[in-house]
Write a structure and sequence with these properties.
Radius of gyration: 15 Å
CATH class: Alpha Beta
Shape: globular
Organism: Sporosarcina limicola
GO molecular function, one term: acyltransferase activity, transferring groups other than amino-acyl groups
Largest sheet: 5 strands, mixed
Protein name: GNAT superfamily N-acetyltransferase
CATH architecture: 3-Layer(aba) Sandwich
Distance between the termini: 45 Å
InterPro entries: Acyl_CoA_acyltransferase (IPR016181), GNAT_dom (IPR000182)
Structural class: alpha+beta
Number of helices: 4
Order of helices and strands: EHHEEEHEH
Strand content: 25-35%
Length: about 140
């Protein structure tokens, strides 16, 4: 049985940490919880997990935002499927869930960025999910 649920409690977040760690290896559990709480409180960040047989197999995190360019949209910050469960449709189901959520809640679209090295992810977004490559993302860290 598969279910998708929003993660709001610390124990739920810790339950999916092993999956998140595959996308964000620099995180430890305490830092993950701290960053999640800060982003949730200050930037409307939300996280959902897809469970199969009571085990988290995919996780998505996003925030709502409004821009002059796109209007009211969803920005996906994190999407990862556990490496043992990839290519089984779990990431697609979770992404479609968020796309449907965005439509139902009056958003104009869904955007994300993907690391330049993640070629399989790019193929997934472009070929399977029909996302359009529309820009480059630049960063300068301090």
């Amino acid at each position: 049985m598969e279910i998708i649920k929003e993660l709001t409690k610390q124990e739920e977040l810790l339950d999916v940490f092993s999956v998140i760690k595959q996308l964000r290896p620099q995180l430890d559990p305490d830092t993950f919880i701290k960053i999640f709480n800060d982003a949730n409180e200050n930037e409307s960040y939300r996280m959902f997990a897809l469970y199969s047989s009571k085990f988290p197999v995919a996780v998505i995190g996003f925030r709502t935002m409004t821009t002059l360019h796109n209007g009211k949209l969803i920005w996906i910050n994190d999407l990862v499927t556990d490496s043992a469960y990839r290519s089984k449709g779990y990431g697609e189901k979770l992404l479609l869930y968020v796309i449907d959520w965005a439509r139902e809640n009056g958003y104009t679209g869904v955007s994300l960025s993907s690391g330049v090295q993640r070629l399989r992810a790019h193929s997934f977004y472009e070929d399977k999910m029909n996302f359009e490559k529309s820009s480059f993302v630049y960063k300068k860290l301090f």
